[in-house]
Protein backbone atom coordinates (compact mmCIF):
# COMPACT_ATOMS: atom_id res chain seq x y z
CA UNK A 1 0.00 0.00 0.00
CA UNK A 2 1.39 3.40 -0.88
CA UNK A 3 0.85 6.18 1.61
CA UNK A 4 -1.14 9.18 0.36
CA UNK A 5 0.75 12.34 -0.50
CA UNK A 6 0.38 14.98 2.24
CA UNK A 7 -1.55 17.23 -0.15
CA UNK A 8 -3.95 14.52 -1.35
CA UNK A 9 -7.54 15.00 -0.16
CA UNK A 10 -7.55 11.28 0.60
CA UNK A 11 -5.20 12.01 3.51
CA UNK A 12 -8.18 13.71 5.21
CA UNK A 13 -11.04 12.06 7.07
CA UNK A 14 -13.57 12.73 4.28
CA UNK A 15 -16.33 10.41 3.06
CA UNK A 16 -15.70 8.37 -0.12
CA UNK A 17 -18.59 10.27 -1.77
CA UNK A 18 -16.90 13.58 -0.97
CA UNK A 19 -13.53 12.35 -2.25
CA UNK A 20 -15.04 11.27 -5.54
CA UNK A 21 -16.90 14.58 -5.85
CA UNK A 22 -13.62 16.47 -5.34
CA UNK A 23 -12.05 14.37 -8.04
CA UNK A 24 -14.93 15.15 -10.40
CA UNK A 25 -14.49 18.85 -9.67
CA UNK A 26 -10.86 18.53 -10.72
CA UNK A 27 -9.53 19.24 -7.24
CA UNK A 28 -6.62 16.83 -7.51
CA UNK A 29 -4.57 18.20 -4.61
CA UNK A 30 -5.12 20.54 -1.70
CA UNK A 31 -4.04 24.15 -2.13
CA UNK A 32 -1.57 25.34 0.55
CA UNK A 33 -4.29 26.96 2.67
CA UNK A 34 -6.42 23.82 2.47
CA UNK A 35 -3.47 21.63 3.49
CA UNK A 36 -2.83 23.91 6.47
CA UNK A 37 -6.42 24.57 7.55
CA UNK A 38 -8.29 21.32 6.93
CA UNK A 39 -6.54 18.94 9.35
CA UNK A 40 -7.21 21.09 12.46
CA UNK A 41 -10.63 22.22 11.17
CA UNK A 42 -11.78 18.63 10.62
CA UNK A 43 -10.72 17.88 14.20
CA UNK A 44 -13.27 20.48 15.27
CA UNK A 45 -10.77 23.14 16.30
CA UNK A 46 -11.41 26.87 16.02
CA UNK A 47 -9.26 28.40 13.33
CA UNK A 48 -7.79 31.75 12.34
CA UNK A 49 -6.58 31.41 8.77
CA UNK A 50 -4.76 34.00 6.75
CA UNK A 51 -5.75 33.57 3.14
CA UNK A 52 -6.56 35.63 0.09
CA UNK A 53 -9.31 35.23 -2.47
CA UNK A 54 -8.13 32.72 -5.06
CA UNK A 55 -6.27 30.59 -2.53
CA UNK A 56 -9.02 27.97 -2.27
CA UNK A 57 -10.11 29.28 1.14
CA UNK A 58 -13.81 28.76 0.43
CA UNK A 59 -13.37 25.02 0.02
CA UNK A 60 -11.19 25.02 3.15
CA UNK A 61 -14.07 26.16 5.36
CA UNK A 62 -16.82 24.56 3.26
CA UNK A 63 -15.38 21.05 3.70
CA UNK A 64 -15.16 21.64 7.45
CA UNK A 65 -18.73 22.86 7.79
CA UNK A 66 -20.07 20.08 5.60
CA UNK A 67 -18.29 17.53 7.80
CA UNK A 68 -20.17 18.94 10.81
CA UNK A 69 -23.53 18.80 9.06
CA UNK A 70 -26.33 16.31 9.53
CA UNK A 71 -28.50 16.51 6.38
CA UNK A 72 -31.39 14.72 8.10
CA UNK A 73 -31.66 17.45 10.67
CA UNK A 74 -33.76 20.28 9.21
CA UNK A 75 -32.25 23.29 10.93
CA UNK A 76 -29.57 25.85 10.21
CA UNK A 77 -26.31 24.20 11.24
CA UNK A 78 -23.77 26.48 9.52
CA UNK A 79 -23.63 30.22 9.06
CA UNK A 80 -21.08 31.96 6.84
CA UNK A 81 -20.80 35.75 7.21
CA UNK A 82 -19.30 37.59 4.20
CA UNK A 83 -18.65 41.30 3.56
CA UNK A 84 -20.47 41.59 0.22
CA UNK A 85 -23.22 40.09 -1.79
CA UNK A 86 -20.89 39.08 -4.64
CA UNK A 87 -18.73 37.14 -2.23
CA UNK A 88 -21.79 35.57 -0.59
CA UNK A 89 -22.99 34.43 -4.02
CA UNK A 90 -19.61 32.92 -4.86
CA UNK A 91 -19.39 31.17 -1.49
CA UNK A 92 -22.89 29.77 -1.96
CA UNK A 93 -21.97 28.43 -5.40
CA UNK A 94 -18.80 26.78 -4.11
CA UNK A 95 -20.61 25.20 -1.11
CA UNK A 96 -23.32 23.85 -3.43
CA UNK A 97 -20.67 22.30 -5.71
CA UNK A 98 -19.00 20.64 -2.75
CA UNK A 99 -22.32 19.58 -1.18
CA UNK A 100 -23.31 17.62 -4.30
CA UNK A 101 -21.80 14.53 -2.67
CA UNK A 102 -24.67 14.52 -0.15
CA UNK A 103 -28.38 14.50 -0.90
CA UNK A 104 -30.52 17.56 -0.48
CA UNK A 105 -28.37 19.97 1.44
CA UNK A 106 -30.06 23.36 1.30
CA UNK A 107 -27.91 26.46 1.10
CA UNK A 108 -29.59 29.87 1.38
CA UNK A 109 -28.06 33.30 0.69
CA UNK A 110 -29.24 36.24 2.82
CA UNK A 111 -27.91 39.60 1.65
CA UNK A 112 -28.99 43.20 1.75
CA UNK A 113 -30.21 44.91 -1.41
CA UNK A 114 -32.56 42.00 -2.08
CA UNK A 115 -36.25 42.09 -1.01
CA UNK A 116 -36.83 40.46 2.39
CA UNK A 117 -40.01 38.73 1.34
CA UNK A 118 -38.40 36.14 -0.92
CA UNK A 119 -35.81 35.39 1.76
CA UNK A 120 -38.53 34.87 4.38
CA UNK A 121 -40.30 32.38 2.13
CA UNK A 122 -37.05 30.51 1.41
CA UNK A 123 -36.20 30.31 5.10
CA UNK A 124 -39.63 28.91 5.88
CA UNK A 125 -38.83 25.98 3.61
CA UNK A 126 -35.86 25.16 5.82
CA UNK A 127 -32.12 25.56 5.28
CA UNK A 128 -29.04 23.68 6.46
CA UNK A 129 -26.52 26.36 5.60
CA UNK A 130 -26.94 30.15 5.52
CA UNK A 131 -24.49 32.44 3.73
CA UNK A 132 -25.05 36.15 4.20
CA UNK A 133 -23.93 39.66 4.99
CA UNK A 134 -23.94 40.64 8.70
CA UNK A 135 -26.59 43.37 8.49
CA UNK A 136 -29.18 41.24 6.73
CA UNK A 137 -28.49 38.20 8.89
CA UNK A 138 -29.08 40.45 11.94
CA UNK A 139 -32.40 41.60 10.44
CA UNK A 140 -33.55 38.00 10.17
CA UNK A 141 -32.43 37.16 13.70
CA UNK A 142 -34.34 40.16 15.05
CA UNK A 143 -37.48 39.21 13.14
CA UNK A 144 -37.20 35.66 14.35
CA UNK A 145 -37.13 34.34 10.77
CA UNK A 146 -33.69 32.80 11.38
CA UNK A 147 -32.87 30.61 14.37
CA UNK A 148 -29.40 29.54 15.32
CA UNK A 149 -30.00 27.08 18.20
CA UNK A 150 -28.82 24.15 16.08
CA UNK A 151 -25.76 25.94 14.71
CA UNK A 152 -22.49 24.02 14.92
CA UNK A 153 -20.21 25.99 12.58
CA UNK A 154 -19.79 29.77 12.33
CA UNK A 155 -17.54 31.09 9.54
CA UNK A 156 -16.31 34.67 9.27
CA UNK A 157 -15.05 35.07 5.71
CA UNK A 158 -12.85 38.05 4.79
CA UNK A 159 -13.15 39.17 8.39
CA UNK A 160 -10.80 42.12 7.87
CA UNK A 161 -13.07 43.48 5.12
CA UNK A 162 -16.13 43.08 7.31
CA UNK A 163 -14.41 45.06 10.07
CA UNK A 164 -13.36 47.76 7.56
CA UNK A 165 -17.00 48.07 6.60
CA UNK A 166 -18.04 48.65 10.20
CA UNK A 167 -19.65 45.27 10.86
CA UNK A 168 -17.95 44.56 14.23
CA UNK A 169 -21.11 45.08 16.30
CA UNK A 170 -23.31 43.09 13.95
CA UNK A 171 -20.82 40.19 13.93
CA UNK A 172 -20.66 40.31 17.73
CA UNK A 173 -24.46 40.24 18.03
CA UNK A 174 -24.73 37.31 15.63
CA UNK A 175 -21.96 35.38 17.41
CA UNK A 176 -23.69 35.86 20.78
CA UNK A 177 -26.78 34.16 19.41
CA UNK A 178 -24.85 31.06 18.34
CA UNK A 179 -24.53 28.12 20.74
CA UNK A 180 -21.27 28.43 22.72
CA UNK A 181 -20.18 24.88 21.85
CA UNK A 182 -19.93 25.63 18.12
CA UNK A 183 -16.80 25.66 15.95
CA UNK A 184 -15.68 29.08 14.68
CA UNK A 185 -13.55 29.51 11.54
CA UNK A 186 -12.18 32.96 10.78
CA UNK A 187 -10.59 33.77 7.41
CA UNK A 188 -8.85 37.06 6.78
CA UNK A 189 -6.29 38.39 4.30
CA UNK A 190 -4.76 40.78 6.87
CA UNK A 191 -4.68 41.08 10.67
CA UNK A 192 -5.94 44.46 11.79
CA UNK A 193 -6.48 44.93 15.55
CA UNK A 194 -10.17 44.08 15.42
CA UNK A 195 -9.37 40.48 14.46
CA UNK A 196 -7.65 39.83 17.79
CA UNK A 197 -10.62 41.41 19.55
CA UNK A 198 -13.07 39.22 17.63
CA UNK A 199 -11.13 36.05 18.31
CA UNK A 200 -10.63 36.85 21.99
CA UNK A 201 -14.37 37.32 22.41
CA UNK A 202 -15.77 34.59 20.22
CA UNK A 203 -13.23 31.84 19.67
CA UNK A 204 -11.90 28.99 21.81
CA UNK A 205 -8.14 28.38 21.70
CA UNK A 206 -7.97 29.01 17.96
CA UNK A 207 -5.24 27.45 15.86
CA UNK A 208 -3.58 29.97 13.52
CA UNK A 209 -2.61 28.95 10.03
CA UNK A 210 -0.99 31.04 7.36
CA UNK A 211 0.33 30.60 3.85
CA UNK A 212 2.79 32.95 2.28
CA UNK A 213 1.19 35.45 -0.08
CA UNK A 214 4.55 35.85 -1.83
CA UNK A 215 3.99 32.58 -3.72
CA UNK A 216 1.40 34.03 -6.00
CA UNK A 217 3.20 37.37 -6.18
CA UNK A 218 6.13 35.59 -7.83
CA UNK A 219 3.92 34.64 -10.80
CA UNK A 220 2.90 38.24 -11.34
CA UNK A 221 5.06 40.44 -13.51
CA UNK A 222 5.13 43.90 -11.99
CA UNK A 223 6.16 46.90 -14.07
CA UNK A 224 6.49 50.42 -12.73
CA UNK A 225 6.23 53.68 -14.69
CA UNK A 226 7.06 57.10 -13.35
CA UNK A 227 4.45 59.69 -14.36
CA UNK A 228 3.50 63.24 -13.50
CA UNK A 229 -0.07 63.80 -12.35
CA UNK A 230 -0.95 65.37 -15.69
CA UNK A 231 0.36 62.32 -17.59
CA UNK A 232 -1.31 59.75 -15.37
CA UNK A 233 -4.73 59.15 -16.95
CA UNK A 234 -3.49 59.30 -20.56
CA UNK A 235 -0.80 56.79 -19.66
CA UNK A 236 -3.49 54.25 -18.72
CA UNK A 237 -4.74 54.40 -22.32
CA UNK A 238 -1.17 53.92 -23.57
CA UNK A 239 -0.66 50.89 -21.33
CA UNK A 240 -3.86 49.35 -22.67
CA UNK A 241 -2.88 50.03 -26.29
CA UNK A 242 0.57 48.56 -25.71
CA UNK A 243 -0.29 45.43 -23.69
CA UNK A 244 -3.83 44.92 -25.06
CA UNK A 245 -5.05 42.93 -22.04
CA UNK A 246 -8.44 41.29 -22.66
CA UNK A 247 -9.72 42.34 -19.25
CA UNK A 248 -8.26 44.78 -16.77
CA UNK A 249 -9.12 46.25 -13.41
CA UNK A 250 -7.75 49.76 -12.98
CA UNK A 251 -7.55 50.77 -9.32
CA UNK A 252 -7.83 54.42 -8.29
CA UNK A 253 -7.59 55.83 -4.78
CA UNK A 254 -10.67 58.06 -5.11
CA UNK A 255 -14.07 58.06 -6.73
CA UNK A 256 -13.28 61.33 -8.51
CA UNK A 257 -10.22 59.72 -10.11
CA UNK A 258 -12.40 56.77 -11.23
CA UNK A 259 -14.87 59.10 -12.91
CA UNK A 260 -12.13 61.05 -14.65
CA UNK A 261 -10.40 57.91 -15.87
CA UNK A 262 -13.57 56.38 -17.29
CA UNK A 263 -14.24 59.63 -19.17
CA UNK A 264 -10.68 59.67 -20.58
CA UNK A 265 -10.81 56.01 -21.64
CA UNK A 266 -14.26 56.26 -23.18
CA UNK A 267 -13.12 59.30 -25.15
CA UNK A 268 -10.31 57.12 -26.53
CA UNK A 269 -12.88 54.54 -27.65
CA UNK A 270 -11.99 52.04 -24.91
CA UNK A 271 -14.87 50.24 -23.29
CA UNK A 272 -14.59 51.12 -19.59
CA UNK A 273 -17.05 51.14 -16.71
CA UNK A 274 -16.69 52.51 -13.18
CA UNK A 275 -17.51 50.68 -9.98
CA UNK A 276 -18.03 53.09 -7.06
CA UNK A 277 -19.06 52.32 -3.54
CA UNK A 278 -22.17 54.45 -3.91
CA UNK A 279 -23.68 52.80 -7.00
CA UNK A 280 -27.13 51.36 -6.54
CA UNK A 281 -27.12 47.57 -6.27
CA UNK A 282 -28.80 47.24 -9.66
CA UNK A 283 -26.19 49.41 -11.38
CA UNK A 284 -23.40 47.56 -9.61
CA UNK A 285 -24.78 44.19 -10.72
CA UNK A 286 -24.99 45.45 -14.29
CA UNK A 287 -21.40 46.70 -14.34
CA UNK A 288 -20.12 43.41 -12.92
CA UNK A 289 -22.14 41.31 -15.35
CA UNK A 290 -20.82 43.29 -18.33
CA UNK A 291 -17.24 43.01 -17.16
CA UNK A 292 -17.42 39.32 -16.31
CA UNK A 293 -19.10 38.40 -19.62
CA UNK A 294 -16.33 40.10 -21.62
CA UNK A 295 -18.34 42.98 -23.02
CA UNK A 296 -16.30 45.62 -21.21
CA UNK A 297 -12.47 45.81 -21.35
CA UNK A 298 -11.71 47.85 -18.26
CA UNK A 299 -13.31 48.00 -14.85
CA UNK A 300 -12.27 51.18 -13.03
CA UNK A 301 -12.69 50.75 -9.29
CA UNK A 302 -11.81 52.00 -5.84
CA UNK A 303 -10.61 49.42 -3.32
CA UNK A 304 -13.85 49.70 -1.37
CA UNK A 305 -15.96 49.02 -4.45
CA UNK A 306 -13.83 46.05 -5.52
CA UNK A 307 -14.12 44.29 -2.18
CA UNK A 308 -15.23 40.72 -2.34
CA UNK A 309 -15.11 40.74 -6.10
CA UNK A 310 -13.78 37.55 -7.62
CA UNK A 311 -13.39 37.69 -11.35
CA UNK A 312 -11.48 34.81 -12.84
CA UNK A 313 -8.68 35.28 -15.37
CA UNK A 314 -7.95 38.99 -15.27
CA UNK A 315 -5.23 39.66 -17.83
CA UNK A 316 -3.95 42.75 -16.02
CA UNK A 317 -4.29 45.00 -13.01
CA UNK A 318 -3.37 48.65 -13.40
CA UNK A 319 -2.61 50.65 -10.28
CA UNK A 320 -3.48 54.13 -11.48
CA UNK A 321 -2.62 55.58 -8.06
CA UNK A 322 -0.20 53.99 -5.61
CA UNK A 323 -2.03 52.87 -2.49
CA UNK A 324 -0.55 54.11 0.79
CA UNK A 325 -1.26 50.68 2.36
CA UNK A 326 1.22 48.09 1.02
CA UNK A 327 -1.08 45.17 1.97
CA UNK A 328 -3.74 46.68 -0.28
CA UNK A 329 -1.20 46.66 -3.12
CA UNK A 330 -0.59 42.93 -2.65
CA UNK A 331 -4.34 42.36 -2.55
CA UNK A 332 -4.89 44.42 -5.73
CA UNK A 333 -2.27 42.66 -7.82
CA UNK A 334 -3.36 39.25 -6.51
CA UNK A 335 -6.41 39.58 -8.75
CA UNK A 336 -4.29 38.79 -11.79
CA UNK A 337 -2.24 35.59 -12.18
CA UNK A 338 -4.78 33.29 -10.55
CA UNK A 339 -4.78 29.51 -10.72
CA UNK A 340 -1.26 29.10 -12.02
CA UNK A 341 -1.58 31.59 -14.89
CA UNK A 342 0.94 34.39 -15.18
CA UNK A 343 -0.30 37.85 -14.33
CA UNK A 344 0.59 41.42 -15.22
CA UNK A 345 0.51 44.32 -12.76
CA UNK A 346 1.19 47.77 -14.21
CA UNK A 347 1.87 50.53 -11.72
CA UNK A 348 1.96 54.29 -12.19
CA UNK A 349 3.74 56.41 -9.59
CA UNK A 350 4.56 60.09 -9.31
CA UNK A 351 7.53 61.43 -7.32
CA UNK A 352 5.14 62.28 -4.47
CA UNK A 353 4.23 58.61 -4.16
CA UNK A 354 7.74 57.20 -3.84
CA UNK A 355 7.35 56.83 -0.06
CA UNK A 356 4.42 54.44 -0.63
CA UNK A 357 6.40 52.61 -3.33
CA UNK A 358 9.16 52.07 -0.73
CA UNK A 359 6.68 50.52 1.71
CA UNK A 360 5.45 48.15 -1.01
CA UNK A 361 9.03 47.12 -1.84
CA UNK A 362 9.69 46.48 1.82
CA UNK A 363 6.59 44.29 2.26
CA UNK A 364 7.27 42.30 -0.91
CA UNK A 365 10.96 42.00 -0.19
CA UNK A 366 11.88 43.01 -3.69
CA UNK A 367 12.78 46.14 -5.59
CA UNK A 368 10.55 47.67 -8.22
CA UNK A 369 11.48 47.42 -11.86
CA UNK A 370 11.02 50.72 -13.69
CA UNK A 371 10.22 51.04 -17.37
CA UNK A 372 10.33 54.15 -19.60
CA UNK A 373 7.05 55.64 -20.84
CA UNK A 374 8.65 55.99 -24.26
CA UNK A 375 8.52 52.21 -24.65
CA UNK A 376 4.71 52.23 -24.66
CA UNK A 377 4.11 52.01 -28.40
CA UNK A 378 0.68 50.82 -29.51
CA UNK A 379 0.91 47.11 -30.36
CA UNK A 380 -1.52 47.34 -33.26
CA UNK A 381 -3.45 49.88 -35.31
CA UNK A 382 -6.70 48.29 -34.20
CA UNK A 383 -8.60 49.72 -31.24
CA UNK A 384 -8.96 47.54 -28.13
CA UNK A 385 -12.51 46.23 -28.40
CA UNK A 386 -14.13 43.63 -26.15
CA UNK A 387 -15.28 40.49 -28.04
CA UNK A 388 -18.84 40.53 -26.69
CA UNK A 389 -21.70 42.99 -26.11
CA UNK A 390 -24.45 42.66 -23.51
CA UNK A 391 -28.16 42.57 -24.28
CA UNK A 392 -30.55 43.56 -21.52
CA UNK A 393 -33.82 41.68 -21.51
CA UNK A 394 -36.61 43.05 -19.36
CA UNK A 395 -37.81 40.18 -17.21
CA UNK A 396 -35.97 37.65 -15.07
CA UNK A 397 -36.61 34.99 -12.44
CA UNK A 398 -39.92 36.68 -11.53
CA UNK A 399 -41.10 35.88 -15.06
CA UNK A 400 -39.65 32.37 -14.68
CA UNK A 401 -37.03 32.99 -17.36
CA UNK A 402 -34.14 30.53 -17.18
CA UNK A 403 -30.80 30.68 -19.03
CA UNK A 404 -31.90 27.71 -21.17
CA UNK A 405 -34.95 29.64 -22.40
CA UNK A 406 -32.75 32.48 -23.65
CA UNK A 407 -30.24 30.13 -25.23
CA UNK A 408 -33.11 28.24 -26.89
CA UNK A 409 -34.62 31.44 -28.31
CA UNK A 410 -31.24 32.43 -29.75
CA UNK A 411 -30.12 29.07 -31.13
CA UNK A 412 -33.20 26.94 -31.85
CA UNK A 413 -35.57 29.82 -32.78
CA UNK A 414 -33.26 32.39 -34.37
CA UNK A 415 -30.55 30.06 -35.65
CA UNK A 416 -27.47 31.55 -33.97
CA UNK A 417 -24.69 29.16 -32.97
CA UNK A 418 -23.78 28.34 -29.38
CA UNK A 419 -20.40 29.99 -29.99
CA UNK A 420 -22.01 33.34 -30.80
CA UNK A 421 -23.67 33.42 -27.38
CA UNK A 422 -21.72 34.07 -24.18
CA UNK A 423 -22.66 34.16 -20.53
CA UNK A 424 -26.33 34.40 -19.60
CA UNK A 425 -27.21 35.94 -16.22
CA UNK A 426 -30.78 35.82 -15.01
CA UNK A 427 -31.50 38.18 -12.11
CA UNK A 428 -34.74 38.80 -10.27
CA UNK A 429 -36.15 41.31 -12.76
CA UNK A 430 -33.75 41.31 -15.70
CA UNK A 431 -31.69 39.00 -17.84
CA UNK A 432 -28.33 39.77 -19.40
CA UNK A 433 -26.94 37.83 -22.29
CA UNK A 434 -23.57 38.34 -23.93
CA UNK A 435 -23.41 37.88 -27.68
CA UNK A 436 -20.67 38.49 -30.23
CA UNK A 437 -20.25 42.25 -30.51
CA UNK A 438 -20.73 42.39 -34.29
CA UNK A 439 -24.21 40.83 -34.20
CA UNK A 440 -25.53 42.50 -31.02
CA UNK A 441 -27.86 45.06 -32.66
CA UNK A 442 -29.27 42.49 -35.05
CA UNK A 443 -29.89 39.96 -32.26
CA UNK A 444 -31.60 42.63 -30.16
CA UNK A 445 -34.04 43.59 -32.90
CA UNK A 446 -34.79 39.98 -33.80
CA UNK A 447 -35.44 39.12 -30.15
CA UNK A 448 -37.66 42.20 -29.83
CA UNK A 449 -39.73 40.92 -32.71
CA UNK A 450 -39.76 37.33 -31.44
CA UNK A 451 -40.61 35.57 -28.20
CA UNK A 452 -39.00 33.96 -25.17
CA UNK A 453 -41.05 31.23 -23.48
CA UNK A 454 -43.97 32.23 -25.66
CA UNK A 455 -43.93 35.84 -24.45
CA UNK A 456 -42.76 38.92 -26.29
CA UNK A 457 -39.87 40.69 -24.58
CA UNK A 458 -38.15 44.08 -24.52
CA UNK A 459 -34.47 43.89 -25.43
CA UNK A 460 -31.77 46.52 -25.79
CA UNK A 461 -28.01 46.59 -26.22
CA UNK A 462 -26.17 48.12 -23.27
CA UNK A 463 -23.80 50.81 -24.52
CA UNK A 464 -21.16 52.61 -22.44
P1 LIG B 1 -11.36 30.73 -3.48
O1 LIG B 1 -10.05 31.20 -2.95
O2 LIG B 1 -12.13 29.98 -2.46
O3 LIG B 1 -12.15 31.86 -4.08
O4 LIG B 1 -11.08 29.65 -4.64
C1 LIG B 1 -10.50 29.97 -5.88
C2 LIG B 1 -10.83 28.94 -6.96
O5 LIG B 1 -10.07 27.74 -6.79
C3 LIG B 1 -12.28 28.50 -6.99
O6 LIG B 1 -12.72 28.59 -8.33
C4 LIG B 1 -12.27 27.05 -6.54
O7 LIG B 1 -13.30 26.33 -7.17
C5 LIG B 1 -10.90 26.59 -6.94
N1 LIG B 1 -10.32 25.55 -6.05
C6 LIG B 1 -10.44 25.49 -4.70
N2 LIG B 1 -9.76 24.43 -4.21
C7 LIG B 1 -9.17 23.81 -5.25
C8 LIG B 1 -8.31 22.66 -5.39
N3 LIG B 1 -7.92 21.97 -4.34
N4 LIG B 1 -7.92 22.33 -6.63
C9 LIG B 1 -8.31 23.06 -7.70
N5 LIG B 1 -9.10 24.15 -7.64
C10 LIG B 1 -9.53 24.53 -6.44
TrEMBL record:
Keywords: ATP-binding, Helicase, Hydrolase, Nucleotide-binding. InterPro entries: DbpA/CsdA_RNA-bd_dom (IPR005580), DEAD/DEAH_box_helicase_dom (IPR011545), DEAD/DEAH_RhlB (IPR044742), DEAD_box_RNA_helicase (IPR050079), Helicase_ATP-bd (IPR014001), Helicase_C-like (IPR001650), Nucleotide-bd_a/b_plait_sf (IPR012677), P-loop_NTPase (IPR027417). PROSITE patterns: DEAD_ATP_HELICASE, HELICASE_ATP_BIND_1, HELICASE_CTER, Q_MOTIF. The keyword Glycoprotein does not apply. Its EC number is 3.6.4.13. Residues 7-35 form the DEAD-box RNA helicase Q domain. It comes from the Bacteria. A motif (Q motif) lies at residues 7-35. It comes from Hydrogenophaga laconesensis. The keyword Hydrolase applies. This is ATP-independent RNA helicase DbpA. GO terms for molecular function: hydrolase activity; RNA helicase activity. Pfam families: DbpA (PF03880), DEAD (PF00270), Helicase_C (PF00271). Residues 235-384 form the Helicase C-terminal domain. Belongs to the DEAD box helicase family. Residues 38-209 form the Helicase ATP-binding domain. It is an enzyme of class 3 (hydrolase).
Amino acid sequence: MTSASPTAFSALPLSPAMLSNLEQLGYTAMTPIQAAALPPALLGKDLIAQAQTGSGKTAAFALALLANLNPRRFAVQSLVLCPTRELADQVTTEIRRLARAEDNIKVVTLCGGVPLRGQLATLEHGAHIVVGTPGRVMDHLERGSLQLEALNTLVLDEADRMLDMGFFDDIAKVARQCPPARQTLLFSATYPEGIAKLSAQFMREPVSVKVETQHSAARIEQRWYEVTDTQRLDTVGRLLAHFRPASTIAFCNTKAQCRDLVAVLQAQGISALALFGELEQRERDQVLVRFANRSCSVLVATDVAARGLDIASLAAVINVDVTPDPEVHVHRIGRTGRAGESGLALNLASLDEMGSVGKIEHLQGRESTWYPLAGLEPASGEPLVPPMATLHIQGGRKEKIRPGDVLGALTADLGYTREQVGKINVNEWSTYVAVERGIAQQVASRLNAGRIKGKSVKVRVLED
